Amino acid sequence: MSWIFRLERKLEPYAVTNLALFLVIGQTFVLLTGMLGLIDPEFLILVPALVQAGEWWRLASFIFIPPPNGPLFIAFALYLFYLYGSTLERIWGALHFNLFILVAWALTAGLAFITPYSATTNLYIGGLVFLGFAALNPNFELLVFFVLPVKVKWLALILWLTYGYTFAVGRLPTKLAVLAALLTFLLFFSREMLLNLRSN
Predict the structure, then answer these.
(1) CB atoms within 10 A of CB 178
(2) CA angle, corner 27, sides to 56 and 54, nearest 5?
(3) Could you give phi then psi for residue 66, rounded to 5 degrees?
(4) Which residues contact 166 (CB under 8 A, 6 or more apart)?
(5) 109-118 exposure pattern, b = at least 16 Cβ within 10 A, e = fewer
(6) pTM beyond 0.85
(7) How does pLDDT run across 111-145, given as a tens digit for each residue?
């Protein structure tokens, strides 16, 4: 039994169900209040130096920053995040998915302190949820541009290649965010990857 399953047996009563929905609601709240001028999202972004100066809420609030670009893109991105996240929770169970997000958050936030004066993005946490979904549902089809059916395993491959390129040429804060996603994926999927290699 892996460390995850041992931990689950102890912490299962404390699991947060529908975590993906709560994260989507939080990002939608930040988006709408930001558009209305009620909240400045700049005060929610994770900048470790500001955390060290007393703005401790940034450690948690950065995960509620919505994706960039226009409202239609954001709505579509949040819908997909909910689809992928809720599916992972249904397959794994609530606590397993909680741990997946918690580890991704902790590694992203922790590694960010290596570059304390740079802002840290949560985009790679969202991408990680898609990669987890694709690893468990490789033949699930999405309609690209609402017309072209494509299996998510090919979209995941493109995203992995993009992450590899970003890690190679990106600035150090970006490299660290990619590394946090990679380490989280390996922690949760290395066992399945080894089993697949042995079976081939």
Answers:
(1) 24
(2) 10
(3) -70, 165
(4) 174, 175, 178
(5) bebbeebeeb
(6) yes
(7) 999 999 999 999 999 999 999 999 998 888 877 66
